[in-house]
Amino acid sequence: MAVAAATGSVAAFELGLHFNLSEGAPLSADLARVWPVLPGLERLIALAHRRRLPLAALATEFRAQRDAFTDAVGRAPAFVDGHQHVHHLPGVRELMLDALVNPSGAPSAVRNTGQVVGPGHAFKRMLIERTGGTALQRLLQDRQVRHNIALLGVYDFRGDGYRSLLRGWLAAAPDSGGLVFCHPNHGAANPGDPIGEARRHEALYLSSSAFTDDLADAGVTVGPAWRQSSNAG
After folding, report:
1. What is the pLDDT of residue 106?
2. Is residue 15 part of a domain?
3. Residue 118 belongs to a domain with what CATH number?
4. What is the total count of domains within the chain?
5. Residue 7: per-residue pLDDT
6. 227: in domain
């Protein structure tokens, strides 16, 4: 969910690729030969920072997931982010951006994880920035790729206080706007989903009049989060 700090009409709904390298099985045969099952996030972070990732296979996997999205949706993804922010890891961020440049030379938008703002959860926000978010932000600026200026939405998935959290994120959003990442699910929770209950709380709030009331109270509208930045950042 994108937020903008100015009033105006709501932009058209966008669909993007949620690149996954940390849960389930690979989509491509190349990566499946290396990892029949995708590593968990902790192992993936460790391999990335030790420069031990199978980058060629990961590049093939990214293209496979992007092509599967295009086949299913009927158009290329409007933006790219990563499951558990894996798109910002060393090596992954470079191959992702290399693959995103289309024949016309215009890159897609990418979720920036380099400026994570909002109340509380300082350690988790710092972890996101320092495992690759800050470096990704510099790369997005250097390559002049459209991205959100700020990222909001970090919490521990506990309790039912999602409305209070989101009101805090809206208050913390910079004047240039930001992107609130969220995980709602109206349907039955998947067995074993560790954040299944949190998904339900998010969905109930985001589909309620309380959400629109809170947007109005904060002077915020839902709209495009992507900005074009220069090398100067």
Report:
1. 63
2. yes
3. 3.20.20.370
4. 1
5. 37
6. no
Q: Which among 211, 228, 207 is positioned nearest to 220, based on CA atoms?
A: 211
- Decide if 91 is inside a domain: yes
* pLDDT tens digits, 61-96: 999 999 999 999 999 999 999 999 999 999 999 999
Residues 114, 93 contacting (CB under 8 angstroms): no
Range of the domain at 109: 2-222
Whether 183 is in a domain gets the answer yes
Closest CA to 21 of 115, 124, 90: 90
Q: State residue 230's pLDDT score.
A: 54
Q: Residue 47's closest CA among 86, 83, 96? A: 86
Tokens representing 141 are 């600026």
Vertex 85: Cα angle to 61 and 73 (nearest 5) = 55
Residues of the chain scoring pLDDT < 50: 3-10, 232-233
Question: Long-range CB contacts (< 8 A, 24+ apart) of 49-52?
Answer: 49/89, 49/90, 49/131, 51/90, 51/91
